Amino acid sequence: MTLFASTISRNSHTLTSGAPPVLTPPTRIPGLGYILFSKPGVPYENPSIPLEESSHKAEALPQPEHAHEPTEEAHAGSEEPLDANAQRRRELEAEEARKGEEDWVRSGGVLRDAEGRRDWARTDAIREELRLREIEAQIMERWNRYEQRWADVLSRVKAGMDGSDSDALLGFNDIPWPLKPVGDQGLQVEDITIQRVEDFLLESLTVRGTKYTKKDRVRSSFLRWHPDKLGNLLQQVRPEDVEAVSRG
C-alpha cells in the first residue's frame, strides 16, 4: 500500500489538461497486480473513476432499511397459529392412538411396550376403563328410559283430561316407578321400598361428569311425587288400580 500511495502522490500533481494520456509500462503493485500510470509530466484527462469522487460515492452507499426487517411481533404472530395447529395435530394423533388401543383390548388383544413385551398394566387399565364405561352406559340408559316414561305418562294424562283419548287410563305398571326393572312378571306394590327407590334415584349421580348433586335429585323427585302434584294423574288411573297406585 505504501508503494501504491507514493506512486499516486507522484503523478497526481502533474495532471493538467492536454493530449490523451501517455501511459508507462504496467507497474506491479504487491497485492494488487499490474497498474498503468501516465508518464511523469504528461497530463491525464478524464479518469474513469476519480479518486475523490469514488470515495464520496463509497460514503453515500445506501444503508439497509430496518423498516423491512421482520419485527418480533410479526414473528410471534406467525408462530402462534403454527404452535396451535401442531398442538391440535398432536391431540388428534393421541386420540387416534388411544382409540386403537381400546379397540385392540376390547377384541381380546394385549398391549405391548416399546420393547415388544406384553404390557399387562396398561392392558388391565384399559379393560377396567371399558368395563366402567359399560356400567355407566347402562345406568344412564335406565335413567333416560325413566324420564322418557314420565314424559309419555304426562302426555297420556293430558290427552285423557281434554277428552282427545278415551283409552288414556293408566294401569299400575304404566306408572314410571323409580326402580330398577324387576323382571317380566311385573311390579308389585311390595317391590316399592325406600332403599330400592333411593338406590335408583341416586345411581346416576355416580356417573362421571354428572352435573347434578344429591340435593338436586332429592328435590326434583320430591316435587314430582308429591301428592298435590299427582291429583290429575290419579284421575286417569283405572279404577281397579287406584288403591295400589295411591299406596305406591
TrEMBL record:
GO term, biological process aspect, one: negative regulation of canonical NF-kappaB signal transduction
Localization (cell): Nucleus
Bias-annotated ranges (Basic and acidic residues): 53-78, 86-104
Polar residues: compositionally biased ranges: 1-17
Membrane spanning residue stretches: none
GO annotation, cellular component aspect: nucleus
Region called Disordered, residue ranges: 1-24, 46-104
Keyword Repeat on entry: yes
Database matches in InterPro entries: NFKBIL1 (IPR038753)
Name this polypeptide is given: Uncharacterized protein
Organism: Leucocoprinus leucothites
Highest classification ranks of the organism: Eukaryota, Fungi, Dikarya, Basidiomycota, Agaricomycotina
